[in-house]
């Protein structure tokens, strides 16, 4: 048996031609050999991220009584929108010294960058916050120059519970569909676990950044479930279905298609988040959560789930 190594690194093995035997050529690709040896080590990275994230969330819940920071739409409170372009810095400094939980958001014109409105949020009662704003501005708030909205804590808690129930039901129904589709325990669990990780990791990062989740933010996690399932179904379906191509080639083909899908989605949401500062914060929060979920989907799908599926196929003799 003789071998010739080419500059690309691929090794072509040509066995000696025996009597009454045709000459065959086998190409061994170095990157595939490396993946066969190290795919189990790659799986450790997302597993460690998930374990550390679950520990962080448990500690966060024990200290805050919730899995995430909540804005006024979930915790209840007052939202005052001041219309117009004015110097808001003195007002912000005054309100920060008077209210511990007050926060501010500016709405600006997309093209000119001019301030259109200032949004003030606090868990305080509307009368107390309105009086403080009027005192610092020096004029009364009317329907022409402002709007005031108050949401009770009971109503906000009801909204939050309904959204969390909807999120849980979506995850359960997705899991049922996955089990019905593949009818095999390990591939189904791999898909479900990857979708779960794609929700946990962005939530941890949002908490670390100190971002308060809104109702729209929770809805964004529903979208993450859909994107996560797409790439994982693509990977699992191609890998466990025997074909003319070997297993590694099928996984690599799914990787190329899946990363193209994720790249197209990121190309849509990232510019909207970074360059359109005039968009409402609810929209920008959706874009941020989706971008984080898509990024972690690359790690969880192609470093963890691909390794689990490859191990399963090797065990079942699926080549």
Explain the layout of strands and helices.
Layout: E1 2-5, E2 11-14, E3 26-28, H1 30-64, H2 72-75, E4 77-83, H3 89-98, E5 103-108, E6 115-122, H4 126-137, E7 146-151, H5 153-182, H6 185-209, H7 215-240, H8 247-275, H9 281-316
Antiparallel strand pairs: 1-2, 2-3, 4-6, 4-7, 5-6
Briefly summarize what is shown:
The chain contains nine helices and seven strands.
Explain how this protein is built.
The chain has 319 residues and is α+β, with helices and mostly antiparallel strands. The chain has two domains: 194 residues, Multidrug efflux transporter AcrB transmembrane fold; 75 residues, Alpha-Beta Plaits (2-Layer Sandwich). It has nine helices and seven strands. The strands form two sheets. Strands 5-6-4-7 form a four-stranded antiparallel β-sheet. A three-stranded antiparallel β-sheet has the order 1-2-3. Strand 1 and strand 2 form a beta hairpin. Helix 8 packs antiparallel against helix 9. It is elongated and about 75 Å long. The two termini are 25 Å apart. The N terminus is likely disordered.
């Amino acid at each position: 048996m003789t071998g010739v190594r080419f500059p690309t690194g691929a090794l072509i093995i040509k066995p000696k031609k025996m009597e009454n035997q045709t000459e065959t050529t086998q190409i061994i690709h170095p990157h595939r050999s490396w993946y066969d040896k190290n795919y189990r080590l790659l799986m450790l990275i997302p597993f460690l991220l998930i374990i550390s994230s679950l520990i962080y969330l448990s500690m966060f819940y024990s200290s805050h009584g919730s899995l995430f920071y909540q804005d006024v739409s979930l915790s209840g409170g007052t939202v005052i929108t001041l219309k117009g372009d004015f110097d808001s810095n003195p007002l912000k400094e005054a309100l920060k010294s008077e209210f511990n939980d007050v926060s501010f958001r500016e709405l600006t014109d997309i093209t000119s960058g001019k301030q259109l409105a200032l949004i003030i949020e606090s868990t305080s009662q509307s009368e107390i916050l309105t009086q403080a704003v009027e005192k610092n501005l020096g004029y009364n708030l009317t329907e022409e120059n402002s709007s005031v909205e108050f949401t009770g804590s009971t109503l906000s808690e009801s909204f939050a519970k309904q959204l969390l129930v909807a999120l849980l039901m979506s995850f359960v129904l997705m899991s049922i569909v996955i089990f019905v589709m593949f009818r095999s325990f390990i591939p189904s669990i791999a898909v479900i676990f990857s979708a779960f990780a794609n929700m946990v990791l962005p939530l941890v990062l949002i908490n670390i950044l100190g971002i308060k989740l809104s109702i729209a933010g929770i809805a964004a996690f529903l979208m993450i479930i859909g994107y996560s399932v797409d790439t994982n179904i693509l990977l699992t379906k191609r890998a466990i279905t025997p074909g003319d191509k070997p297993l590694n080639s099928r996984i690599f083909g799914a990787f190329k298609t899946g990363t193209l899908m994720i790249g197209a989605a990121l190309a849509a949401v990232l510019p909207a988040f970074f360059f359109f500062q005039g968009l409402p914060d609810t929209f920008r929060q959706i874009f941020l959560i989706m971008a984080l979920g898509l990024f972690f989907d690359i790690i969880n799908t192609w470093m963890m789930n691909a390794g689990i599926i490859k191990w399963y196929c090797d065990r079942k003799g699926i080549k």
